[in-house]
């Protein structure tokens, strides 16, 4: 029997037992001798298969000599087997919860290794990143900045689709330099179309991924594209995780929302021309003059200035100038 002919293996029926069961469906009331001829099995293998089938209530034995076997109808068999497998999986889930309660060893000397896992290979790092995405239940927050070890955008887009299909919100903060990488802007557009909330900042300090704000993934090497995903740390709930979450929140508040109209980016990132907008705004130049200088519409300039004011937590342009001065601008 070919592998693709097997359907009962998924519910715990062995290959031999399924072959005998199929033979009985086609030859009701077959004897052991007849089944040996039909299956080509030896006496021992056939007896084992029949014992399995009887144990699963898939066949019955007729009275008389020689013994003959009758198959139970497939719709009845499959329903019982599926229900049995579901009950077994439910027990596994319950056992897994009990095992989880034993996972964190109370001994103080083991505490550090519980809080921080070390991934020492590219394969382990990639698998852990996938687990964090698939395991997220409440949120997935990511810093996106170069260098990138590889440009396999399809993988993250597929995982993102599965994540959002489960109702898990996803947010990404893109470094300006990331959007200049080949294919990244189109990738960001696809992610936004799937439902990711995205913002852009200038100068993200590191790569970082947060799953449910309870687990963080940080690569060891932040600047080498060849080694960018070779190894990393998985940080669980502790003071270090709290600091990483706070860092992510700070950059989220600073970021400019990344929006798309159709295929085109409608809100540009806080790119090099933002310094020009700030300089001209503080100097008192009107919006129309700033727009002419930058080659954009006055509405775009007003929206950009409003975003700057929101990020600074002020309501007027004068207040924005004061806040920027306190932050040391323009020497940033």
Automatic annotation (TrEMBL):
InterPro entries: Sig_transdc_resp-reg_C-effctor, TrmB-like, Tscrpt_reg_LuxR_C, Tscrpt_reg_TrmB_N, WH-like_DNA-bd_sf, WH_DNA-bd_sf. The lineage of its organism: Bacteria, Bacillati, Actinomycetota, Actinomycetes, Micromonosporales. One of its GO terms (biological process) is regulation of DNA-templated transcription. Gene3D superfamilies: Winged helix-like DNA-binding domain superfamily/Winged helix DNA-binding domain (1.10.10.10). One of its GO terms (molecular function) is DNA binding. Residues 258-328 form the HTH luxR-type domain. Coiled coil: none annotated. It comes from Micromonospora eburnea. PANTHER family: HTH-TYPE TRANSCRIPTIONAL REGULATOR TRMBL2. This is Sugar-specific transcriptional regulator TrmB.
